[in-house]
Amino acid sequence: MPALKQFTTIDPTDRINVNLKLTTRTAIEQYRLFYTASYGHPVERGELIEEVLRSFFENDADFQKYAKRMSAEDKASVDKALKLGRQAGGISDTFNSDEA
After folding, report:
1. In a domain, 99, yes or no
2. Helix, strand or coil for residue 9?
3. Domain enclosing residue 1, as ranges
4. Which pLDDT tens digits describe the chain residue by residue (100 residues)?
């Protein structure tokens, strides 16, 4: 069974350009096939990459601690980099889960 749990995508998305090495692109395609074989339905490449990253961030305890301690200035800096206004469900709310 995959380490990545079956998921559905409900978050708004935005396109970014990211350069990936051939070995990484190959692993993504292999994992797409693995996910499809394991769960019985295909997954889009972008959704898979998004979920892998989200899972990684959620499971990094030190990052979770850092995110919980972020100052209002740090959160505003992140929102500015993402061209967001302060809003519920924005980056300032994303990683501040009490589960970590």
Report:
1. no
2. coil
3. 1-10+19-59
4. 778 777 776 667 778 889 999 999 999 999 999 999 999 999 999 999 999 999 999 999 999 999 999 999 999 999 998 888 755 555 555 554 444 4
CB distance 56 to 27 below 8 Å: no
d(CA 72, CA 88): 14
Tell me which residue has tokens 């350069």. Answer: 19
Amino acid at 12: P
Torsion angle of C-alpha atoms 63, 67, 70, 72, degrees rounded to 10: 150
Instruction: Mark whether 90 and 43 lie in a shared domain.
Output: no
Co-location of 28 and 5 in the same domain:
yes
**pTM of the complete model beyond 0.70:** no
